[in-house]
Amino acid sequence: MSAVVAEHDHHDHGPAKGLLRWIITTNHKDIGTLYLLFALAMFFVGGAMAMVIRAELFEPGLQFVDPAFFNSMTTMHALVMVFGAVMPAFVGLANWMIPMMIGAPDMALPRMNNMSFWLLVAGVLLLASTLLMEGGAPASGWTLYPPLVLQTGKALPFAIFSVHLLGISSIMGAINIIATIFNMRAPAMTLMKMPMFVWTWLITAFLLIAIMPVFAGAVTMLLTDKFFQTSFFDAAGGGDPVLYQHIFWFFGHPEVYVMILPTFGVASTIIPVFARKPLFGYSSMVYATAAIAFLSFIVWAHHMFTVGMPIAGELYFMYATMLIAIPTGVKVFNWTATMWKGSMTFETPMLFSIAFVVLFTMGGFTGLMMSIAPVDFQYHDTYFIVAHFHYTLVPASVFILMAAGYFWLPKWTGHMYNERIGQLHFWLSAISVNILFFPQHFLGLAGMPRRIPDYAIQFADWNMISSIGGFIFGASQLLFLYIVVDTIRGGTGEKVTDEVWEDASKHSLEWTLSSPPPYHSFTTPPTSIPTEHI
Amino acid sequence: MKKTKQLSAGLTLMAFGLGTAQAEYTLNLMKGVTKVSNDIYDLHMLILWICVFIGIGVFGTMFYSIYHHRKSRGHKAAQFHENTTVEIMWTIIPTLILIGMAIPATKAMIELDDVQESDMTIQITGKQWYWDYKYLGNDIQFESHLDEASEKVHRTAGANPHSVPHYLLNVDKPLVIPVNKKIRFVLTSADVIHSWWVPDLGWKKDANPGFINEAWTSVDKAGTYRGQCTELCGRDHGFMPIVVIAMEQPEYDAWVEKTLAQQKQKPDLSDQSSGDLMAHGESVYLKNCVACHQINGAGIPGLVPALTGSAIATGKWESLDGFLRAGTAKMPSFAKLNAKEFAELMTYVRNNLGNKVGDTLQPKQTALPDDDD
Amino acid sequence: MSKDVANKNIKLARTLLLVAVAMFGFGYALVPLYDVLCEWKWIERDRPDDIKKVPEVAYQIDRNREVTVEFMTTLNESTPMKFRAEKKQLKVHPGEYHTVNFYAENKTDNAMVARAIPSFSPAVISRYFEKIECFCFSEQTFKAKEAKIMPMRFVINPALPEQYKTITLSYTFFDNTEKSVKK
User: Fold this and answer.
1) What interface predicted TM-score (ipTM) does this complex get?
2) Residues C130 and C173 in one domain
3) Which of A322, A412, A447, C33 has the fewest CB atoms within 10 Å, i.e. is most exposed?
4) Which backbone phi and psi does A295 adopt, to 5 degrees?
5) Which of B206, B189, B185, B208 is nearest to B197 (CA)?
6) What is the CATH number of the domain that holds C160?
7) What is the pTM of this model?
8) So what's the pLDDT on residue A329?
9) Domain A24-512: what homologous superfamily?
10) Which of residues 356-395 of A touch C (CB under 8 A)?
């Protein structure tokens, strides 16, 4: 332990030279960059898998892949996107931004920070290696339900071990973030002055510490059931396969909030800057985030309405789930009120943020529809739910990650991105994401189950439209890759100011540092705290 | 051309929200043919309209603001950042709306849950990858597999799915029920978790190994209703559809009588021509073997051995017969097949799928002395 | 970073790590917790261990009520057995003792260890369905080709709420031979 958290002493020198810098670095900006680039790479890997899925579903009949491989693709697409792309991207943002936002020189536990990144890489590579194993990669869906998951070939123990690594990495990242926020703030930065992004990450980090070990426990039980004759989920030995689902969703529901709470934080950071107005209802935003996090622990079985629960359970989980609409509604209303009577401009980060508010709300609506247990008996496990959670992940979490990229890239690199290509990227993404996912509502309502490689003729047209949307969306993301590379290499050549966006330094501390910021953020704590966001 | 027209009709409907849908172009949830499914539909529409209404309010405000409160129009930013009254309002009003939604939802849930006072019980067992139905009141029991036409097309590269009626939504033996009777289903599984869903009945329910779940229906209208397995259950999850035929009582009674008589009949063990053996053998193969050994007998490299050129398949038929009946750790026993099916299957496997043993096996040869299944 | 802050960081990290370890334990604690919630009939159906052997006591027989008990038999993973209840259904009065025979046969040429897992519909019935004798209390061993008649003696507790008129009792036989060899 002491080796990991030993005091570091880097104040006086800059980065190491060459490639080694990136391997041994303990600097929050370097590690943040590593996380973000890794997440971007995984976004394309997971995206390529999605393209395989959409290509196969372009027309009825089996064209390209075998059904077993198709199932591996849906499973791996989800695991890679969740654990390889979205979560690491937010950890990367946290690494970059939290010390700069709270007036700290670096993260609290820099060596652990390095270790958690490399464990993530190891975990994802191990997961990817299962694609080459006998019997193929896991093909039981990212939920890994037994008994189906126990039919996985050689890959099973490797997939489980990879989940362990990813879990340890996330827990270490979360511990680091909590320690940084609690111990490293500038003296003037009180808790209720912290930017929303810091608040949402603080709450997310607690969620991670609470749930990742539970997931690790669940998959360990799978492992011992398969290889050591335990019977946690095996009815033959007195266990129950449905028990796994309860444990999984005890993890799984907070897990989806791990991906959405920091999203809320970034949106609450960007929208006020471009509305040139303070965030509306700062404290209610904090309380709503905490309320959503709390509720996430007591609603898990709404993923299991059709599994066969007694009526008391069905009704309880229905009521509890409906409650989530209240704090989530508060957030949406607050963002709307922040824009109201503002002086808005629509640079790319703002465009993505507005699209997030609108499209995430649509995902929220379908979420509310599915909270109604009897109606969920129709929606469950159809394309309706696929549409729902993609609306809450792609035009929400992913769009906000894009927004964050455009918003902070000039600060990180000191270069301005190409606004015209940025706007093009936005419009292509925002239109195609709807062509991709909106028709999936119709497919689900019309009766198309999820996770099928081939479908009845009546589902053909909407699937084809959805696939076309998918291909456009996938191709548009190459523009983002281009912009990131281009900006790092100099962008438009325009020298950006310290605050980059008009009056941004009134909102948050990072804009008071130079662009790009010094290797160690705040060597002396700032004395005055911008309070525009409060 | 027709397609384009339908598509534009669909898009128009989409533009007007989820309106009345055309029969072949369902955009909305189907109403179904039971009271419960209609209640669920009404609930769905109620919440949908609430969402549309709230959406218009929120997005309307947002877009008004985006249009009017922009810097390029010279709008100066106000500096307010809280308003307790407004904040309390937008907490309380949604709460009231939610309570309003919870009341009909609770009613529907209780209705859905009440399986008592039923007229008959049917056991549904999910298996990889077909359904097994058993009527607990009489002795009717049968397996329900994907129909042969769909089976052949979805397994053959380049085959045209449009040529198959009800592609992937048709079975060899549908479940038959009487109309206007409360039918209770008890669901279980013999391997992994499956889920039984017919949208027209208004619900789906998981089939868990070792445990039973229950559900019920009472169909108002005679007709054929189709559905699918909705819980990922492995490789052929997409290929285990459900077909329910609801009949008027007299027709149903006749069906029961006929089916029972058929079930009691001993298999016809008379000799068949080799062409018949091969044709029937293909049907048996498509139901029982194709999921693993594939349509061309090639198996799955690394997982399932090929039948083409296999020593077991092309060796002595007696040992093949014994092998099929016993099963192995990886292959289930096929002792459930009767002598006729064994003869047909073995003849097919030995003389098709790239094999040319050249023999024909007749049902009398493969009959076991105590073959009473 | 000053020594002071570094020490604070280490302390906090240790505490949080302990929380994470405790949550791993909590994952396992969910297993018995689940049994408790099942007992309350809140989130789940009956568990096999719910169905305990009870001594035979004389109940007041409720002749005004009749409950139809259906029997359902399933073989998991095509276990090579024959398994059926000798009666498909039975009409019983609550408080009245009955014995139903189940027939099971090992169709293989090897010894077999199998376990029958019971399940009820509606799930709440398991609370009122009392078994005095049952083949599901323990694993059953079959010799090669052995056939057994296995009695199951039960009573429905007269406390059964009025609304339950049809109940289904399901048994699924699982082949545990391989598992018991490994153990």
Assistant:
1) 0.90
2) yes
3) C33
4) -60, -30
5) B206
6) 2.60.370.10
7) 0.92
8) 94
9) Cytochrome c oxidase-like, subunit I domain (1.20.210.10)
10) none
